[in-house]
Amino acid sequence: MTDLMEHISSTADVTIPSDPFERIVGQNHAVTLVKSAVVQRRHVLLCGPPGVGKSLLAKAAATLLPPPTEEIRVHHNPLQPDRPRVSIVKRRNAPASAQNKTTRSSDVYYVRPEELPIEVAVKMGYRCPSCGSLSTPDQGMCLECGAAKRCDWVGENSYHGLFRVLHVIHERAMPRVECREERNGVTWTVSYERDAFDTIRVTAIAAATDDDTNNNTESHVIVGIDTPRFVRVTGGTAVELLGDVKHDPYGSAEGLGVPAFRRVIPGAIHEAHEGILYVDEVATLGPLQKHLLTAMQEKRYPIVGHNPHSSGAAVRVDGVPCDFVLFASANPEDLSAILPPLRSRIRGYGYEIMLSSWMKKTPEAIDQIVRFVAQTVVEDGKIPHFAREAVEEVLSVAEEMARTIDRQRDALTLRLRELGGVVRSAGDLAVHDDAGLVERDHVRRAKKLARELRVPDHSFASKGSHVIDMDDYGSYFF
Ligand SMILES: Nc1ncnc2c1ncn2[C@@H]1O[C@H](COP(=O)(O)OP(=O)(O)OP(=O)(O)O)[C@@H](O)[C@H]1O
Ligand SMILES: [Mg+2]
Fold first, then answer.
1. Residue 258 within a domain
2. Is there an atom of ligand 1 within 6 Å of 50 CB?
3. Helices 54-62 and 28-40: angle between axes, nearest 10 degrees
4. Assigned domain for 96 exists
5. What's the pLDDT at 453?
6. Rounded to the nearest whole angstrom, what is the distance from the C-alpha of residue 30 to the centroid of ligand 1?
7. Residue span of the structural domain in which 126 resides
């Protein structure tokens, strides 16, 4: 019995890590490579049989992504409405007044009075306009030099002292200052608002690029700064992958219908800009693989209307950014259907990772399966925890699967979607019996049930059904 098994009476005693990589059972080699791939922005091909954690690895990789810094916009092009222009709005660090605090394209944070830019501090009454000393806004005169606060606004000698103080009091009643700051060509609208006497709430918005402000063109955000940059491609259509331009019965006729630039829809390759594009079963993309390859090489790809009978077909936006890290998955038997230059690009600029379907039965491996049972219970949320004897039974199922499917002795399966199916079925039986814990007998019955319920549709099993698709295993399993 391993350490973990000795110390638990049920899976309720097992600690579940919060780090998604630590929740991945086995596949240590893949975890190491995937982590470094994200940091180095390398492409990855995950190869392995169904249900061994390919999607799980890709999702875990997404948690390592730094926040995106670019928003993609499409603009009206007055000279050629059917050729909208593209621009990027950069997310910048916060203005110098709040160095060390990074901000998003729109962000809120708090600063102390001494961190305010001088003229903002003067306007808000925190600093003396003459000597710059700090004081609270309710002090109308500077205690250091005796000058009236905000006298720069009133005019040094234009008013007598009393009026000056009244004016200061009037101004002080507006404890909010808004200004524009230019940082590397990006305009920030920053508003400073007194939250408490010694805290100021700052709202910073990266308004637009110089280009936008100067030309004041109409624009349409197609990939927002806060859109999730983990994008999964499943359907494998040109529209889903490469984007589209919607149809409008009036086409681009001036003043009628929706202008072309507003009808532009980004593809998954664009939405994954600066992030991860996860293409499940990459071989099923067929001829679209060559477009994917071009996008990877160029890091920009045009958006065009794909339906030749639609007015969208006349529209084209060139140079739309798509600098993504590709995570592709494939079953080993489909490797030959992957476009050779695409595979070579992944090999040359990334990793081709083979996932294992079993692991040696070491004490660590046993502990990992125990943790997997606990994780499955917690993630499911509807089934009770497993008694220690029930966990032992799950371990024997894992061993049997490795022996019957992968012909490995003294090993445990890593086909964990299927093992998870047995765990959930056993849990359901325990719920049906009103049992407080899942017992050994529930697991045995779940195993038997899995043998009896053979469904031909694999996708049914993969959608979280508790029924296992036994066709994958032929006559090996159980
Ligand atoms: N290595 C693993 N560690 C922990 N859980 C796993 C692992 N592999 C599979 N699972 C469990 O099985 C489920 C399915 O895994 P996943 O979707 O990652 O498989 P896949 O390899 O992408 O399969 P497919 O080829 O069918 O897409 C996960 O949600 C998880 O519960
Ligand atoms: Mg998957």
1. yes
2. yes
3. 40
4. yes
5. 62
6. 13
7. 89-211
